[in-house]
Specification:
Chain lengths: 108, 116
């Protein structure tokens, strides 16, 4: 089983600041990694797939990088609607998928 | 427009059975895997497994194998998640999601509450 560890658990920032979220895999997942955003009371939304590809309709301030075991989601300048939970997910060992534990991005 | 619409919230007692649904529209339902994801209160996302509507090929996460059953009704473009005997620890929101390599479309979630 591939375990994904996200850090930090909580990130406290102000609007306009840059957010950097980390996802580390217990073994290489190549670039078979996605990022999702979830707001309270809503279903998750796909942001990034294949480690660095933005999903349809996702603003350019969201970017993904990394390969192998270390991945980063960057939000270049936080908008008020970006304060939410973020999860990474791997599909390297399809059909054995897994999610990370999540990072909460909160307003400082 | 691709949509996944899930059935409404349920309140059940321990030991009862339950089947919740996820109806797809706006795409070829049989050509994409449907995944199920659990979110316990205040917790993160847990992958439960996948089902391929075309032939009902099913893959369960080891954590959920034997605890739940997936099924589909192709004629109605609907996937199902069922329990034969609910436990209090099954209390959670359950999401279905279409998998096109990744989960690109999600249902709105079904809240299942199990309490005596």
């Amino acid at each position: 089983e591939i375990v994904l560890t996200q850090s930090p658990v909580t990130l406290s920032l102000s609007p306009g600041e840059r957010a950097t979220l980390s996802c580390r895999a217990s073994q290489s997942v190549s670039t078979f990694l996605a990022w999702y955003q979830q707001k309270p009371g809503q279903a998750p939304r796909l942001l990034i797939y294949g480690a660095h590809n933005r999903a349809t309709g996702i603003p350019a301030r969201f970017s993904g990088s990394g390969s192998g075991t270390d991945f980063t989601l960057t939000i270049s300048s936080l908008e008020p609607e970006d304060f939410a939970y973020y999860y990474c997910q791997q599909r390297r060992n399809w059909p054995a998928l897994s999610f990370g534990g999540g990072t909460k991005v909160e307003i400082e | 427009e691709v949509q996944l619409v899930q059935s409404g919230a349920e309140v059940k007692k321990p030991g009862e059975s339950l089947k919740i649904s996820c109806k797809g529209s706006g795409y070829s339902f049989t050509n994409y895997w449907i995944g199920w994801v659990r979110q316990m209160p205040g917790k993160g996302l847990e992958w439960m497994g996948l089902i391929y509507p075309s032939d009902s090929d099913t893959r369960y996460s080891p954590s959920f194998q034997g605890q739940v059953t997936f099924s589909v009704d192709k004629s109605n473009s609907t996937a199902y998640l069922q329990w034969s005997s609910l436990k209090a620890s099954d209390t959670a929101i359950y999401y279905c999601a279409r998998q096109d390599h990744y989960f690109d479309y999600w249902g709105q979630g079904t809240l299942v509450t199990v309490s005596s």
